Amino acid sequence: MRFNQIFFQYSFFSRGLGKQNFLLKKCFSSTKYVPSEISNNDIHNPKELPYLTDNHGRVHTYLRISLTEKCNLRCNYCMPEEGVKLTKKPELLTTNEILTLSELFVKQGVNKIRLTGGEPTIHKDLLHIVESLKNISGLEQVAITTNGVTLTKQLVNLQRAGLDVLNISLDTLKSEKYERITRRKGWARVIAGIDLAIQLGYNPVKINVVAMRGFNDDEIIDFVEFTKDRPVDVRFIEYMPFTGNKWETQKMIPFSEMKSMIQAKYPNFSALPNNPNDTSKAYHVPGFKGQLGFITSMSEHFCGSCNRIRLMADGSLKVCLFGNSEISLRDALRNGCSEEDLLLMIGAAVKRKKKQHAGMMNLAQMPNRPMILIDCKMDTGRNHNLRKTGFNILNQYFLINSPLNSYSLPRFINRPHICQMSTSSKLTHVTAEGKVSMVDVGEKVNSERLAVASGKVYVGPKVTQLIKENMLKKGDVLTTAQLAGIIGAKKTSDLIPLCHNIFLSHLEVNCTLNEQDETVVITCSAKSTGKTGVEMEALTGVSVAALTVYDMCKAVTKAMVIREIILVKKSGGYRGDYDIDNSG
Questions:
Q1: Separation of alpha carbons 296 and 298, rounded Å
Q2: In whole angstroms, what is the distance from residue 183 CA to residue 345 CA?
Q3: Which of 494, 551, 579, 581 is labelled catalytic?
Q4: What distances in angstroms separate CA 482 from CA 12, 32, 393, 479, one per listed residue?
Q5: 555-573 pLDDT, tens per residue?
Q6: How far apart are CA 143 and CA 57, in angstroms?
Q7: How many angstroms separate the CA atoms of 178 and 184, rounded?
Q8: What is the side-by-side order of every strand in the sheet holding 561-571?
Q9: What is the DSSP string of 552-582?
Q10: Is 551 a catalytic site residue?
Q11: Which residue from 115, 231, 235 is spatially nearest to 170, judged by alpha carbons?
């Protein structure tokens, strides 16, 4: 079988990631974390939430779950004119998978779950999902965001099931405008749903209003007055850019302008206290029952206090509303991935969350899922660069770690000679008769073993730019290659017939883009305490990572070269140490 078929058929994905996952525990060793050891008393301590804490100190305890991509409305700022291609049902999370992942997140510290869509009220198992979520120990709040069209039929039962918080989307207080923007009837039913929620004791009932110049900017004061006799929280949301919604700067009404409009009518309009992770800036008119809020994603972002992550209907995890990096928990779950490896994937994705989004004008130029599919699989036919296949965008922790600076590649990578050790003059895996044989290590002494290997993939200028901008169809090349390298190294004994299955105490793979040389540079460090070396694990990790880079970029060019996969350093064992810089 060809080398790349042996080393990289994604076969290790189908067999799951559970074997030898202790290799990855090291990346979280500073917290001394064991999943079962978290108690309800300390789940809010960032030191005890390694999988939910990013590199900027933000702890993600709020999970938004999309139950479906379908909706019974067609809002023009949400649904592109050409429509969207719905994901096939087998590719969506099942109810059991939703609950399994929810429980996993809550065990790690999530204390609030919001159900979204599409439109969550059209999911056939909504009532069962709410009831089941409320039975998860440690979950403090279950909320829902809905367009409110069917609330009068469902809300009583949802409240009995335990629904804590209710957000209703309503962009206009005029029925004719409602039909114009939603392309459907239903305004009266939404108003009736709001009234019912108030009667049932929801306080406040949150009403989400996307503020758009030329559509509802003349209703800002009307919405303020809607709070006079009702315990509602009207939240004005700045119009945000998503693929297909024809976002324009002039359509957006910034928070400062809305506030000035209201203060001109109500001079005593004033701010209320906010909680640390609130997305809405709270205000009110003194004497009114309700209050106002402003969600300022565009003009005054609140990325620094963000504690939200999103599980989409197709099982993808999205750590930022405006990010285009996703990992598929569905694929991992269905391939028998262990709970610990799921957590490693989640933790890696959270670790890679950026400090803040790209800014209003940059976001307008960046591809992102259409708003209706922001929690679902996107395939509009025009934005394939965001699409993912299976594990192709798996994120993992090791990208966060610093590169192996002590083994800098430029010192030796271009050496033409083949370096070899001279302590033995015969092949160890061949008998005197010339037959293949595994080496007997039973009599060897245990010692600490270390091996570092490296390699390069020449990818050329076009792929270099695409990797830099993370715009390849299959996703994040460097991250995927790193995870593949880690898994490949762990599976060395399965891939190389005569290698022993050994316990690795540490494993680290790093993939970096060298723009000047138009190459991806890969290093792999493996460590073990045992009776045999870890050179093959290090070399296998580099090889699989290199093949992954090739696989993910081959649609752009086949003219890539994998080269110079070499052992850089080795220590431990009776054959002595080895360093390429001192190899003569």
A1: 5
A2: 40
A3: 551
A4: 14, 24, 11, 5
A5: 999 999 998 899 998 888 6
A6: 25
A7: 8
A8: 506-514, 519-530, 447-458, 561-571, 578-579
A9: HHTTT-S--EEEEEEEEEEE-STT--EEGGG
A10: yes
A11: 235
